[in-house]
């Protein structure tokens, strides 16, 4: 079975890989097909309107809206990694050295929980290493896969988009046993 996207491209009915490069209350998302073609990119707000960017108030409907707009179901989400031993106690998080990272880490943890609730695989990536990891996995195809989206889609295509695309590639390799 095949589906046509709004760009008249035809995709095998496969599951999409979504990656998020989060910031303070918003994120860049990139969704790629199994062959690493970017099928969607967007900026999403991660908090409710009228709420400070600092507290953790995710609107999970944003993920549902994104997933519904894609030409195939989401298989996985890739998020920037966080220290697995990061404290859960809010009082501890409000002290050095944790206070500078607490909100971002809570955003990622919440996104991971929301993704698990939708049955999506959750992959964590190191933003400083993921592009090199993707280059390694892609081999000769690296330039074509990583540079074509900017030419094909135009702006905006920032470093965040590139990192997120690389994260979908690394997640795909992990899911296929190539990690």
Give an overview in words.
The chain is of the alpha/beta class and 179 residues long. It has one domain (15-175): Nucleotidyltransferase, domain 5. The chain has six helices and seven strands. Helix 4 (130-138) crosses helix 5 (142-153) and helix 4 (130-138) packs across helix 6. The protein is globular, with a radius of gyration of 16 Å.
Percentage of residues assigned to helices: 25-40%
List the strand order in the largest sheet.
Answer: 5-4-3-6-7
CATH architect. name: 2-Layer Sandwich
Distance between the termini: 29 Å
The largest pleated sheet is described as: 5 strands, mixed
The CATH homologous superfamily: Ribonuclease H-like superfamily/Ribonuclease H
**Alpha carbon gyration radius:** 16 Å
Total E-strand runs: 7
Classify the secondary structure makeup into a structural class.
Answer: alpha/beta
**Count of spatially separate domains:** 1
- Percent strand equals 15-25%
Which topology does CATH recognise?
A: Nucleotidyltransferase, domain 5
CATH class: Alpha Beta
Tertiary shape: globular
- The H-and-E topology, N to C, reads as EEEEEHEHHEHHH
How many helix segments? 6
Task: Please give the structural blueprint.
Blueprint: E1 2-4, E2 10-12, E3 16-22, E4 26-32, E5 38-45, H1 61-69, E6 74-80, H2 90-93, H3 102-117, E7 121-125, H4 130-138, H5 142-153, H6 159-175
Parallel strand pairs: 3-6, 6-7
Antiparallel strand pairs: 1-2, 3-4, 4-5
Helix pairs in contact: 4-5, 4-6
């Amino acid at each position: 079975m095949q589906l046509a996207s709004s760009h008249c491209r035809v995709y095998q009915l496969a599951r999409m890989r979504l990656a998020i490069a989060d910031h303070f209350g918003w994120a860049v998302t990139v969704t790629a097909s199994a062959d690493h073609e970017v099928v969607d990119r967007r900026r999403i707000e991660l908090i409710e309107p009228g709420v400070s960017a600092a507290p953790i108030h995710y609107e999970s409907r944003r993920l549902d809206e994104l997933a519904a707009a894609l030409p195939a179901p989401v298989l996985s989400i890739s998020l920037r990694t966080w220290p697995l031993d990061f404290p859960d106690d809010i009082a501890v998080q409000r002290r050095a050295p944790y206070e500078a990272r607490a909100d971002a880490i809570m955003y990622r943890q919440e996104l991971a929980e929301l993704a698990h609730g939708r049955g999506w695989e959750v992959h964590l990536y190191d933003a400083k290493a993921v592009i090199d990891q993707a280059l390694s996995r892609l081999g000769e195809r690296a330039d074509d896969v990583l540079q074509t989206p900017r030419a094909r889609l135009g702006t905006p295509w920032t470093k965040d988009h590139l990192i997120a695309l690389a994260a979908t590639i690394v997640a795909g390799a992990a899911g296929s046993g190539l990690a």
